[in-house]
Design goal:
The protein has 12 helices and 2 strands, in the order H-H-H-H-E-H-H-H-H-H-H-H-E-H. With about 375 residues, it is an all-alpha fold. The longest helix has about 35 residues, at about 215-250. About 50% of the residues are buried.
């Protein structure tokens, strides 16, 4: 079970893996690597993902929900934002849509991929996937508002040609994003924390773990540090692998933009695995906290950071989605609302979200 003490061998492995992955990252960053090294890096990337999941669950077990989900979501997003800014600085004109594509991919992966997988696994094992509609609905509303303000409006505003905000509009979007994200975090962790706790089969919130005693402060602190190292390694090694991924994408005849989708899938692997593990334990609310929290943090932290960075980055910042992307986002929002309102879901709802995820991937490959 998540958070339960690992055996001595496993504990050593998850302690050593982030360090080994970071050493590999330092040895390969900015260099051309051969096929053998690409394979080794891919193995270490998978190991760093699994280590991140383990340490995230240890931290979550210590601090409880919803703080545990918040830690993983914010940690991944902060590092992801740093990667976006770094790539935009070095990418020039070709990186103008990088932030948009990455954030949109994160929203679709979390709201359809992670959410759909969690609902399907939970309903498959327990007949119904139960969660708190009040908390999840509030989170979904915040995600939809953020996505509309930051990804849809730039397409229809008239201040700048193309899907761009004027400086004033970008500043407003940044402040609005921080305000919405801050309001959600206060609601989730202070005012209405019970809305984001796992629920029993009678719908009552469950504010306790069903397994071993929580780890000590020292163990949790060590896991938090190793979690951050693991996430740095995941994002960094994904960047190292990106030339090989790009070559594979081009060899398959796919659009170059699909590289960003692949990297987003890799970066979000820790949250995906953690959410799936929680769903198998009938803790669907934890899974949805991870999905919604990741989508929200991806927008709410990325846009303000880019608004500040745009002062000294010459790369144009095109945030507006295309027509196909807007349609997919709209369908996802409507379906997600219908999924959340009852407070429980069957395999049908999980399947619908997974099909939307497949549609996103297919249209990314064949726009």
């Amino acid at each position: 079970m998540a958070g339960a003490p690992a055996g001595p061998l496993a504990a050593r492995l998850w302690t050593v893996m982030p360090v080994v992955a970071l050493v590999a990252l330092a040895a390969t960053w900015g260099r051309d690597i051969g096929t053998v090294v690409v394979i080794v890096v891919a193995v270490l990337l998978a190991g760093a993902v699994l280590a991140a999941v383990h340490h995230a669950e240890v931290v979550a077990h210590r601090v409880g929900e919803p703080f545990g989900s918040l830690v993983l979501a914010v940690s991944v997003t902060v590092i992801e934002v740093s990667l976006i800014v770094t790539l935009m600085v070095s990418g020039g004109e070709q990186a103008s849509t990088l932030a948009r594509d990455t954030v949109f991919a994160a929203v679709m992966i979390t709201l359809n991929g992670i959410m759909g997988l969690s609902l399907f696994l939970g309903a498959r094992r327990f007949t119904f996937a139960r969660f708190n509609a009040e908390g999840t609905g509030g989170a979904l509303g915040t995600v939809v508002a953020l996505a509309g303000l930051c990804l849809v409006l730039p397409t229809v505003t008239l201040g700048e040609p193309g899907p761009e905000f004027t400086p004033g509009q970008l500043a407003f979007a940044a402040v609005a994003s921080l305000a919405l994200y801050g309001a959600f975090v206060v609601t989730q962790t202070v005012r209405h924390r019970d809305f984001f706790l796992p629920v029993a089969r009678d719908g009552a919130p469950v504010d306790e773990e069903d397994h071993a005693d929580p780890p000590s402060d020292r163990e949790a602190g060590l896991s938090l540090g190793l979690l951050l190292l693991s996430l740095v390694a995941v994002v960094g090694l994904a960047k190292v692998e990106s030339p090989a991924i790009e070559a594979g994408v081009l060899a398959a005849g796919l659009p170059l933009a699909f590289v960003g989708v692949v990297i987003a899938l890799l970066v979000l692997l820790p949250e995906t695995i953690a959410a799936a593990n929680a769903a198998r334990r009938e803790r669907i609310q934890v899974s949805l906290n991870l999905a919604m929290g990741s989508a929200m943090a991806s927008i709410g932290l990325t846009i303000p950071t880019l608004a500040v960075a745009s002062v000294w980055i010459d790369t144009p910042l095109q945030l507006g989605l295309g027509t196909t992307q807007i349609v997919l986002l709209g369908i996802t929002a409507v379906v997600a609302v219908l999924t959340v309102v009852p407070g429980r879901a069957t395999r049908l709802q999980g399947t619908v979200h997974l099909v939307l995820m497949a549609a996103f991937l297919f249209l990314s490959m064949s726009p």
